[in-house]
Design a protein that fits this description.
The chain is α/β, with parallel strands linked by helices and 206 residues long. Helices cover 27% and strands 21% of the residues. Helix 4 links the parallel strand 7 and strand 8. The longest helix has 24 residues. The two termini are 20 Å apart.
């Protein structure tokens, strides 16, 4: 499967029109707990101006929303983030970032519909918030990769320790990323596409 190199310049390309050669569009969801970098990733990698539904956090969320580790965060996604990236001249990914606060998780069901795969963003300072996220994907049978977002001061763990803590099978890719960087976020999506491709090839061979 032909993928472009990941050394494209940072930021949106500004090309709002799909290439005429585009033959396939794939829906990908970017999921994770509150404040793990979903909006940041979609915005960093999208070649169009991303659609966001961020709202200012209010006192109404006190005692309801878990803000441990992200106490300085002042906005939150209340519906979804949306972006688009062309992986090559024929394959286009539509990215849907889910809201992270648990009170908005009822929206996930609709966002998962039609998704071919998912990226689970992880914050090692708050590893426990990823358990339910991964469980929901496994229940729906959505293939996923795990991307450990690099936060300053966050503990670093070997991949196999994370795999064991998250109870993930050996085939599920786990990689470290910086969601702020377009090239790093794009590498995560390329890893997901290769994983989906390998899974499809394995199933065809059975």
């Amino acid at each position: 499967m032909d993928f472009r190199d990941s050394d494209a310049p940072a930021g949106p390309r500004g090309a709002d029109v799909l290439p005429q050669t585009a033959a396939a569009a794939v829906k990908v969801v970017v999921v994770g707990g509150f404040g793990v970098g979903k909006t940041t990733m979609v915005g960093a990698v999208s070649e169009i101006k991303p659609l966001t539904t961020e709202e200012t956090m209010t006192r109404a969320g006190i005692g309801v929303d878990d803000t441990r580790g992200v106490t300085r965060k002042t906005t939150t996604t209340v519906a979804m983030d949306f972006g688009r990236i062309s992986i090559n001249d024929e394959l286009v990914l539509y990215l849907f970032g889910t809201p992270g606060q648990e009170r908005f998780w009822f929206l996930w069901r609709g966002l998962f519909e039609g998704a071919l795969g998912a990226v689970v963003l992880l914050d090692t300072r708050r590893l426990e918030i990823s358990f339910d996220v991964i469980g929901r994907l496994e229940e729906r049978g959505v293939p996923f990769v795990v991307a450990v977002n690099s936060f300053p001061g966050a503990p670093e763990h070997p991949v196999e320790e994370l795999r064991e803590a998250l109870d993930l099978p050996p085939a599920v890719p786990i990689l470290v990323c910086d969601a702020r960087r377009r090239d790093s976020s794009r590498d995560v999506l390329l890893t997901l596409m290769r994983y989906l491709y390998s899974q499809a090839a394995t199933q065809e061979a059975m």
